[in-house]
């Protein structure tokens, strides 16, 4: 009799635990998240957030998909295809200026500096921005570096009309450069440099002209969502920021763990290459920077963001969107909870 009662109690406890677990799982808010590109080392921020259940701890069930360029990601967020996106803030500014009735809003600064760049090979004879005049430059049409080239040209006294742009699919950009079909390409240095290395090009043969080092000290990639989504789901936005910070701290502490998390998501993930790409972003002050070290991850200097907005408006000859239509810091935790590891 006692044994029967004990079993009933045990099974009852198990049923309650299972029911609570199911209830918790059902309570998680589904969130569709788009990256800016195919899976790369810096995306391990969210690979670790998934693996270590930081999203779940903050009430979300996140599905993460690769992207096809920053410009494309912004369009997909504005169209409602995704809830949250990782994209270049310069693409956001351009889109918002041209679509004032369908703006997206940045709510967390992931990259302190833009990795937008022009990349060439030494054999082209291109060694500095002025050498680009009259040359063929290749890039996908929605590439953020291509869209921002006007500002780069202005900062370096290049006539934009002298450039012969060649449009190609994203996966053909570096191939066409190696084959000599174009003389330079635009893109994130952290993407194109390592794609070229992967294709067998020695790193010493690659010429990188970064926008940030050539007159454009602009902010880089951010997390974005539609304003109405943010207004309806403030808890999701706060939770996504917290999970992102936790994932970033973990990645900075242990890059190898981040690469392992990404390999679980994509078995073909090239750990060695992506480890080098991540180190490149950290060394260049993109993902880890003096400003983040001092003020906490996600920090935004209003004056520098104003400059980023103004530069974009001048390039595209559009009215500069108000700063509060481009970004918000409302969902940042206190700086003490955002400090990167020493």
TrEMBL record:
Residue ranges of every copy of the SsuA/THI5-like domain listed in the record: 41-256
Pfam families for the chain: NMT1
Keyword Metal-binding recorded: yes
Signal peptide location: 1-25
InterPro entries: NMT1/THI5, SsuA/THI5
Associated pathway: Cofactor biosynthesis; thiamine diphosphate biosynthesis
SUPFAM superfamilies in UniProt: Periplasmic binding protein-like II
Keyword Kinase: no
Record key words, sorted: Iron, Metal-binding, Pyridoxal phosphate, Signal, Thiamine biosynthesis, Transferase
GO biological process: thiamine biosynthetic process
Protein role: Responsible for the formation of the pyrimidine heterocycle in the thiamine biosynthesis pathway. Catalyzes the formation of hydroxymethylpyrimidine phosphate (HMP-P) from histidine and pyridoxal phosphate (PLP). The protein uses PLP and the active site histidine to form HMP-P, generating an inactive enzyme. The enzyme can only undergo a single turnover, which suggests it is a suicide enzyme.
The family this protein is said to belong to: Belongs to the NMT1/THI5 family.
Quaternary structure, from the entry: Homodimer.
Protein name as it appears in the record: Thiamine pyrimidine synthase
Origin species: Endobacterium cereale
